[in-house]
Amino acid sequence: MRTKFKAYTSKNFHEIEQLKNLSPGTLLRMEAVAKVLPFRTNNYITDNLINWNNIPEDPIFQLTFPQPEMLNETDLQRVIKLMQEDKSKLNEEVRRIQMKMNPQPAGQLELNTPSHEGAKMKGIQHKYKETVLFFPAQGQTCHAYCTYCFRWAQFIGIDELKMATKESQELINYLGKNPKVTDLLITGGDPMIMKTKLLRRYIKDIIESKPGSLKNIRIGTKALSYWPYRFTEDEDSDELISLFKEIIAAGFHLTIMAHFTHPVEMDTPEVKEAVKRILATGATIRCQSPVLKHINDDADLWVEMWSKQVTMGMIPYYMFVARDTGPKGYFNIPLEETYEIFSSAFSRVSGLARTARGPSMSTKSGKILIDGIIKRDSHKYFVLKYIQSRTPELVNRIFLGNYNSEAVWINDLEPAFESDELFFESGKQYMLLEKGIPDDEFDDEYAFA
Ligand SMILES: *Cc1c(COP(=O)(O)O)cnc(C)c1O
Ligand code: SF4
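A: This is the predicted complex of the input protein with iron/sulfur cluster.
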């Protein structure tokens, strides 16, 4: 029998059987947080991934349910008070708190959006030479929301569908005119939320016209974790699997960029079956996730995660540093600790799992890897390098930042020597290298999915 999708949000989460053991006070606090931050989970997650004897600590509970500590106590109490006493002022207060939490400011997308004959091309982003990102309009939501997602502004309607497009023709024209582009990344939200019919409409045009130098099609998704039935028993799963085969038959490499945050997401029979079906099409699956406090800040867990991925035939890809938006303070880990988690895990897996790269910060100017922490003449330094950049000249060149035990992001670090300034956004030479390209307001719009 087919499992029917049921979403739980702040409106109906009281129906979740397993929550009935929580005190009314706790439920109220969760509901208050859900007024401010997006909340959506589903029946696959509640029935298969959460150990209800271990809440609130359970990592998947942390991953998809609002936690009172995600807001500061003053804000939380204010929201609760308004919920109970003066609903008319609630929306205003909620918006005030949201704006304080660094949602994507309006206009930030503009500069990464290529224009074609003067018109901005909605739903297309081109930041790195080889890869174009494509945001189909109907793929801008997900089967559940990660509590750490930096796209949360979009989910609560501050930034609604700004990046979405309904057209593939514009994309095809763009790829045709930009022969340096080899990769197309279809992303969201989660494009796997779309019915196969719709996805096919976008993809068919692309694989038929073979625009420019396009070789690789990637689909970013968390559906393997949040709704593996998408690939197995949903009404149009078989059609989806056929579509994957068609992409490959047309001569493209297809890779699913899977977002796995925790090893339990890889343990169910459902996900194992989904992975098998995808791999049987000839597609590959590459896996990525940020590292987060309360969820996966533990080297053993990453050893387990990468090892399982390899055993299941998937390829470990990126470990990200959590981004600075939303309830980030809640998930924050100092860069040093992030680096230690990565190194400790990396040192304990075989070469097959050492395809993982990280920890990597997705910054305005590119992906910056923390490659080491070294001590020379009683000074400590962060060894850094770009693994992706708008400025290809900077890629794979080592640079140094002064050690700072509290740093959680690149902007907490300073160039160690004059020659390192080039690599920092504050550096003058950096601006020179960027000449011709607007050099601020760039934001990396790449979902963790
Ligand atoms: C990471 C990323 C890509 C893909 O980069 P790869 O290193 O080729 O995986 C493309 N666009 C953006 C904006 C990204 O952040
Ligand atoms: S991280 Fe990905 S799957 Fe999670 S809510 Fe954000 S876009 Fe959706």
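The chain has 15 helices and 15 strands. Residues 81 and 87 are 9 Å apart (CA to CA).
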